[in-house]
Amino acid sequence: MAILDMSKREPSSPSMPRKAKKRLFSLAKTNSSLSSFSGHIPPQTPSKTFSRSIMEENIDNADTIVKKWDLKESSSEIFSSLFKQDRKEAKEFIKCVEDLKRAMQFLVTEHSTCNKLVVAQNLMQIAMKRLEKEFYQILSTNKEHLDPESVSKSSRSSQLTRSTSVDFQEACESTDSRNEIQAMSDLKLIADCMIGSGYAKECWKIYRIIRKSIVDEGIYRLGIESRSSAQINAMKPNVLEHEIKHWINAVKVAIKTLFHGERFLCDQVFSASKTIRETSFSDLAKEGGINLLKFPELIAKTKKSPEKIFLLMELQEAIAELLPEIESIFSYESISSVKIQALTSLHKLKSSIQTILSDFELSIQKNSLKTPVPGGGIHPLTNSVMDYIASLANYNGVLSDIITESSMSAQSSFPETYSAMSAVSARLAWIVLVLLCKLDTKAELYNDIALSYLFLANNIQFVIERVHASELKCLLGDEWISNLEKKVKLYSTKYENVAWNKVFLCLPESLDPLLSPDTIKEHFRRFNESFEESYQRQKSWVVPDGKLQDEIKVSIARKLVPAYRDFYDYYMVVLSGEKNLEVLVRFSPDNIGNCLSNLFHENVMSGSLVGSSTLPNSCVWQCIS
Description:
By secondary structure, the protein is an all-alpha fold. It is 71% helix and 0% strand. The model is unreliable at 1-14, 30-47, 163-168 and 603-625 (pLDDT under 50). This is Exocyst subunit Exo70 family protein. Residues 1-20 are annotated as: Disordered. Pfam families: Exo70_C (PF03081), Exo70_N (PF20669).
């Protein structure tokens, strides 16, 4: 406490401001070990006298160079930078200040009433004013060299030299950042000196003024604005989509370049003090970081719709990819709210995506369209659901983070065969199953049972083809596809039996030579009527998939045409002398084949991904063998 009553002990000494006294106490604390040790040494030893003379000499040396660069003594209105004008003398200036600090520490603990202490404190204030100005000048005149992009590149070059044998100087030259490295080096030199001298707050304030404006400008140039829920909800869908796409591009630059560069610069300049590093970066980046990463949370809270899920997944993917860097850049406790905001946005997006998937599944179940699709073609629900699921499959990586085993455990109604699938595959397979169950109810809308079977065969085949043409094939697997193909075969066979069984029954089971002409005529008459009825009824039915269309027509032809040909050839001899034979026998075997070839071509669904028949008209009967 001796320093507090200095003026009483030495009235001739200049008075010391209260603020200066506080700084001296601060210096004394940094040298507490020296103070404690000196208390056990007897006073007035020769070594102490020698130490004091050395320290007073340091003060005298500092007086010369510090006053030379005293801002008040400068006659020029234009500031002349010491670090730019004479780098050798700049380093000497810093060394003098360090020596001055050590002298003050010694005198505070050993000779607190010494007049030299007041002189030293005045010199320190002059030196700090000079360094404050130099610090400001370097920051303000090197904005181009210390822009976030350049600093970020230097950071990565620095990481490169640590992980490889590349020389750091070569890395710097390769990125043309020598001026930037020099500026950072000077800033660090000044910051170390000011922090060590008890002027950390002054140094930090200058840094904050300059760099905060650069961060704010960077965020503004990226087009990142603070939005409210009301503003986002009022956006039209196309505007919202544009904003989301823009944000995804902007956030990558903001994290990888802007905040990454600022964190690196803070760490370099204020390497002497973890507290100053943390405080400085927190002041620069906290507000901007939170505003930046809050946008996805606001989007997740907007009105949900099936098509919005893809934008939400893109947001989810963007944040998830950047999360390791976000956690690294915003690692300080004082700025952890930025990390928390990123995690909150991820959680809200995940929840919203899960809700949309559940709502979509429910919408399939609740589809109330009561009008049958003409000709048993592809139902609009089948088309829209498969398009949607195929698009979802393109986001397998994102969905794997959202649809987890734990989130699927609630689906106790899942078929046991799904247990071998991944969570994403099982969920998509389940949605297809919900669709197929709904198609069963749609098939009941047809009055013709044969047409209902054809409808199911068509729609399941469409599902299979859509799976083959997308990433769903990899997700659902060959076994799953094979099971559906069996269903197509089952329904097409049922269609064939129901639709053509009456025609088959018109032909005799065997060729009996004892049949009377009248009986033969009756068989031809019934066949004519039955085939004509079946053909006319099915002429407007469709099979959009070319492969399935060929399979069905060939299957019918292989059974019907040979049987009719045998009947025709055998009994036409008996009827050869009959009048009006062309009325009695209306169809030749070739006519039957041609008619079958003409089936399933009308009203094919527009824009269908499935192809048309690969067989030309009047050639189905030629495939019979």
